[in-house]
Amino acid sequence: MDTLSFKTVSANKASVQKEWLVVDATDQILGRFCSKVARLLRGKHKPYFTPHIDCGDNVIVINADKIKLTGKKWTDRVHFRHSGYPGSQIEVTPEEMLKKNPASLIEESVRGMLPKNRLGRAIFKNLYVYAGPEHKQAGQNPKPFDINTLK
């Protein structure tokens, strides 16, 4: 066997096949669920994963309002925001975030698990989160995906 003839295949933007996946967040634990969603967005589940290319899938998360947290994290954990003006730091608990906008809880968690650069911002645009079971991407014919099958 001639081992010198093997070539490492690197994916590029033209050779990547992106799919549309629908993932249900009902009764899922927030951190474990979001790490799997980030893995799908990044494309690490594909055999041709290339770190510097957006080779992940488009992911639609439904039922974001039915996500779970364990222990006292609903009230004890605090998320910080700052507008840049003096004295404008805002502290929000996950319970308040869920009441105001359930999608923001999942979006913020997934955003923190993606690269902090141009590629991470581009990958994040492939995430669509909805509080209920309905979504607007029916025209893309998304396939339902069982997130529990992903390691």
What would you say this structure looks like, in words?
The chain has a single domain (18-145), classed as Ribosomal protein L13 (Ribosomal Protein L13p, Chain: A). It has five helices and six strands, in the order βαβαββαααββ. The protein has helices spanning 30-42, 73-76, 94-100, 102-112, 118-124; strands at 20-24, 58-62, 79-82, 89-92, 127-129, 143-144. The protein has a four-stranded parallel beta sheet, with helices on one face. A two-stranded antiparallel ribbon has the order 3-4. Strand 1, helix 1 and strand 2 (58-62) form a beta-alpha-beta unit. Helix 1 (30-42) crosses helix 4 (102-112). The longest helix is centred in the N-terminal third of the chain and has 13 residues, at 30-42. It is globular. The model has no long low-confidence stretch (mean pLDDT 94).
